[in-house]
Amino acid sequence: MSIPIPRELDVDLTQVPRHWMSNSAVATAITNGINLLFPHGERFFVRSVNHYLDEIKDPELKKQVLAFFKQEGHHAKAHDTFNNVLRTQGFEVDTFLGRYKKISSWMERLMPAKINLAGTAAAEHFTAILADDAFNGGLLEAISPGMRELLAWHAAEEIEHKAVAFDVLQQIDDSYWVRIAGLAYATVMLGVFWAWATRTLLRQEKIGFRAMRRQMKALRGETGKPILQAVFLAGIRQYIRRDFHPRHNANEHLAAEWFAAHGLTFKVA
Question: What pTM was computed for the model?
Answer without folding.
Answer: 0.92
